[in-house]
């Protein structure tokens, strides 16, 4: 079975647990923090994957490191360690956060622009593109990319809306090349 399917199953279980105990918001906050911890601390993954370190030692580290976290989140991490599934923790967190965004009607979006966008520009982009993908709003991640020359390129999931100058030039070039081949 693929890692993605397994990660999705753990995320679904944690999501259902959060719904039953009315702790979805708390789980979301904790998992966002946990995601940052795992991204910024490669040694933690190395420790959790190390074959010479016992499962009990790994679970003890999780217990001590995440004392302020809910029992459900900590127990999920311990369960993943018990089953030697440490490598899917980040993917499980990503699936959970995606489920939370879907439940709220929010989507994650990458916006490529030549410069950093202002709050009002981000708000307008969110208001413009959210209905196009059937969402109430977008969480925007602004990526500064001078190679687009001007305009913006928006990526929401697997959809790309390209209003950049470089994108328009590329489309014009393709039209000219295909017209010359005829």
Automatic annotation (TrEMBL):
Record-level GO cellular component terms: plasma membrane; proton-transporting ATP synthase complex
Q: Which residues form a coiled coil?
A: 17-44
Q: How does it sit in the membrane?
A: Peripheral membrane protein
Keyword check for S-adenosyl-L-methionine: no
KW Cytoplasm (keyword) present? no
Q: Where in the cell is it found?
A: Cell membrane; Membrane
Q: Which InterPro entries match?
A: ATP_synth_OSCP/delta_N_sf, ATPase_OSCP/d_CS, ATPase_OSCP/dsu
Q: Which UniProt keywords apply?
A: ATP synthesis, Cell membrane, CF(1), Coiled coil, Hydrogen ion transport, Hydrolase, Ion transport, Membrane, Transport
Membrane-traversing stretches: none
Q: How does it assemble?
A: F-type ATPases have 2 components, F(1) - the catalytic core - and F(0) - the membrane proton channel. F(1) has five subunits: alpha(3), beta(3), gamma(1), delta(1), epsilon(1). F(0) has three main subunits: a(1), b(2) and c(10-14). The alpha and beta chains form an alternating ring which encloses part of the gamma chain. F(1) is attached to F(0) by a central stalk formed by the gamma and epsilon chains, while a peripheral stalk is formed by the delta and b chains.
The family annotation for this protein states: Belongs to the ATPase delta chain family.
User: What protein name is recorded for this chain?
Assistant: ATP synthase subunit delta
Species of origin reads Halobacillus halophilus (strain ATCC 35676 / DSM 2266 / JCM 20832 / KCTC 3685 / LMG 17431 / NBRC 102448 / NCIMB 2269)
